[in-house]
Protein: GreA/GreB family elongation factor
Organism: Mycolicibacterium rufum
Amino acid sequence: MPSTHDSVWMTPQTRAALEAELADLLTVPHAADAESRTDRVVDAWLARKHRVREIHELLSRAGHTRIPPDDGVAEPGMVLTVRFDDTGDTETFLLGTRGTTDDELEVYTVSSPLGSALIGATPGCQCSYRLPTGRSQRVTLLAAVPFGAHRPAGAASRTPV
């Protein structure tokens, strides 16, 4: 079983969309495509093969395909709001995997310095992580809500894909 840092969180809708894309990519190409041996066809075939590998990798690592409970605990699938203690600036982002939602949120992975520092935190917890410069950055978790519940009431809802 993959560790928390190796697993990928995605919505059930994203998993279904990736599975449908994979099924489409794995269908046998038309005979006309198979007979044509131009560079363009070969490039398209290589791109298709690469995408199949990408999807296989994502799906094999998809240990979390559910919306997490609304318990305020920072975990994959939660939208986190943090305050950077040195400046007072705030940022809201999804703790997850890039490319696994169709949303305008910034995504931090659990293996990123900020993401790994926040795993398991609850609102009010102060955490610190190392910046690339070697300096330590302190943040306070202000909120942790499940993906989808982060949208303001009455906002146009987009179904995550």
